[in-house]
Amino acid sequence: MEFFFVGIATMVAALVVATGVALLRRGLRIRRAWHGGRTSEARCLRVLTNTTGGDSPTTYRSRVYEFTTREGRTVRITGNGGPDTVLEGDTVMVRYAADAPEHATAEPYRPVALAVGMGCIGLFMAAALAVCVTVMVIALTAGSPDEPEVPDDFPTGLHF
After folding, report:
1. 20 with 40: CB under 8 angstroms?
2. To pair with 46 at 20 to 30 A between CA atoms, which of 3, 9, 29, 125?
3. DSSP letter string over 64-112?
4. What values do phi and psi take at 109, rounded to 5?
C-alpha cells in the first residue's frame, strides 16, 4: 500500500517541478528580453481569439507580431496578453535580447509583477513538494507492523 502513496506523491512532485520550471523559465525569458537592451517596432499581423467553453466561458487573445532585428533578421513571435486595443496592422514596441530575438516580448515592462509572480510560483512549488515529501515519509514509516504475539498465559484482565 505504501508503494501506491509513494508512487502518486512522486508523480505529483514531478509534475509540480516540471510545471514550476517551465513557468520560471518563461518568467526569466521575459525578464531577459526586458533587460536585453534591444527594442524594435513590430507590426501586428494577426489577432487570435481562443474561447474556453463551460458554464463561464473565458476568452484569451494572442497576437502574432513580426519585426526586424538590428542585424536585419525578420522574426515572428506570438504574444499573449497585452492591451486589447492592439489590432491587426498596428505597430508596437518589442523588447528582446540580442542573442535570442525569438523570445521577444511586446508585454509592458512590469518588473514588480514579474518578481511577485515568480515568488508565488516558488512558494507554491515549495509547499507542494513539502506535502509530497510528507506523504512519502508517512507512507514509508507508518506502515502497519505485524501484531506482536501474545503468550497464552499472558494476563488479559478478563476472567471467564
Report:
1. no
2. 29
3. EEEEE-TTS-EEEEEEES--TT--TT-EEEEEEETTEEEEEE-S---HH
4. -75, 110
